[in-house]
Amino acid sequence: MNSLLAALGVTTPVLAAPMAGGATTTALLVAAARSGGLGFVPAGYATARTLAERVAAARAERIPFGVNVFAPNPLPVDRAAFDRYAALVQGTADRHHIDLSGHVPVEDDDAFAEKIDLLAEDPVPVVSFTFGIPERAVVARLRTAGSLVAQTVTGVDEARAGAEAGVDVLVVQAAAAGGHSGTLTPRLPPPEVPVDDLIALIRQAVGLPLIAAGGLATPDDVAQVMAAGAQAAMVGTVLLRTGESGASPVHQAALADPEGRGTVLTRAFTGRPARALRNRFTDLYGDHAPYGYPALHHLTGRLRKLAAEAGDADALHLWAGTGHRQARREGAGQTLARLAAAL
Fold it and tell me: Where does this protein have coiled-coil stretches (predicted)?
């Protein structure tokens, strides 16, 4: 067993990525733990109270688990561009009887301080951060409380910054990842570097344990990143069709649609780059969306919720990594065990 796995308290180096918005369920965390790994409670978009409830539910299962937190990294929106975009998206919103006119940009930090207070006072085994790097004092506070601290990075400079902040582990996320990129510079596209190459580059620059993420979908993918120097692999998209997934039925169906057109990195839904299945929304609005997170996330949030309920795949954020064709209808534990089979 490598040192990172020992620190995490797990036996299998294939972990379940945090997927905010409902895809990660307590059942998925349990399946990950029972397969020898662990999953992460997503704190993103949740109130501190809801996070506390999710942590309590995971803790009641007596399993190893982590919590993933969105660290503040403001991407303010230009108000004129925001208003123009709202007017443009109104054409799709009309299908779901939503009026976007007069919507005021919401610029919040996802209750970051409250969540840190909660995790410091009621510590969990692992806390990971994405979107931004917290201050050294925050990292030290969580480590003093007994948590292992991980930081999502997408390049060498970010890896060095994470190490400087005092984190224990780096989650190295390649551009092939589904959902939001963890890049610290969201106005710049994340580098199109294969994850195994990215692991090798960061391993040379920083002496921290590395977890590989982004586009990992087969046993060979996992074996390749481990050979490149990762001590664990993290997967998300391949779990979206499992029995424990909380992804909506329309999302799960789209992942397996033989007529699908692949994935695209888009800011159309949230104002921050994220990889999703191409659909009518990304085609219509991808080139017109301003940068602005979380303002665009809040602007389109209700529309996307109603689209999911109505089964409207053309108006929904269908987050998916490049390996989405490998997502299967099976138990999450079976998926994770299968991915570890070549190790």
Answer: none
State how far the Cα of 254 lies from the Cα of 259, in Å rounded to an integer.
Answer: 9
Residue 171, beta-bridge partner list: 152, 211
- Which candidate, 108, 124, 112, 106, places its Cα nearest to that of 41? 124
pLDDT tens digits, one per residue of 302-323: 999 999 999 999 999 999 999 9
**Residue for token digits 């919103």?**
93
User: Residue 99 class from Cβ within 10 Å (0-12 exposed, 13-18 middle, 19+ buried)?
Assistant: exposed
pTM greater than 0.90 (yes/no): yes
What SS3 string covers 38-59?
CEEEECCCCCHHHHHHHHHHHH
Are 38 and 13 in contact by the 8 Å Cβ rule? The answer is no
- 177: which DSSP letter? -
Is residue 100 within 8 A of residue 89, CB to CB? The reply is yes
Which tokens is 8 given? 């995490």
Structural class in CATH, domain 3-74+109-243+328-339? alpha beta
